[in-house]
Amino acid sequence: MSAAPHFALVEDFLYLAASLLDARHWDAWLDLFAPDCRYWVPTWKADHELVDDPNTGLSFIYYDSRGGLEDRVWRARSGTSVASTPLPRTCHQVTNVRCEESGPDRLLARSNWNCHVFDLRTGAQRVFFGRYEHALARGSGELRIAEKKIILLNDAIDGYIDFYCL
Fold first, then answer.
1. Which alpha helices (H) appear in the chain, and where do they start and end?
2. pLDDT exceeds 60 at position 2
């Protein structure tokens, strides 16, 4: 499968994922992930060196299946996450999308992102930004996220960070 003919599909898929997060349509957002997906936000070992293994290094967030994401969404919705009550307003922007083949029926998408966050509790505004790496599986004509790695470039976090901020 050549990546070039699928570029517009991949780009639209990434935009959809961002829009679903901002609209808090989290069930539809979760449906974009394969059941055995990996969702990872590694920390930095040094100024320009990321942790390269979630099993041996620290991570901001790491789930080895969609079940972990489903649990996190449940906590945010239920109000049991103090940091998520009330839920902030978010605005994701995805740019500089690149796409390449990484195997049969598999694409690798790399992009840049930022998310503006407005905390309703404090009135504080924050911006998180970085790079995304998505491994996308194509089955039955649909894309699913097999892996999502979020490289957080401004990792000096003065409060909380959660899936809806990334």
1. 7-22, 26-30, 66-78
2. no
Please report, to the nearest 10 degrees, the dihedral formed by the alpha carbons of residues 87, 10, 135, 103 taken in order. Answer: 170
Q: Where are the alpha helices (DSSP H) in 2-148?
A: 7-22, 26-30, 66-78
| Amino acid in the structure at residue 21 | L
**Residue 135 tokens, joined:** 């491994």
| 2 burial via Cβ count (<10 Å: 0-12, 13-18, 19+) | exposed
Residue 101: predicted pLDDT: 85
What is the token pair recorded at 95?
């740019």
Q: Give the burial string for 18-43 (b: 16+ CB within 10 Å, else e).
A: bebbbebebeebbebbbeebbbbbbe
Distances (CA, A) of 30 to 7, 40, 45: 22, 15, 30
pLDDT of amino acid 108? 96
In this structure, what token pair is assigned to residue 92?
């994701």
The residues, any chain, with a CB within 8 Å of residue 16's CB and separated by 6 or more, are 32
8 A C-beta contact, residue 143 and residue 31: no
**CA–CA separation, 46 vs 31, rounded Å?**
35
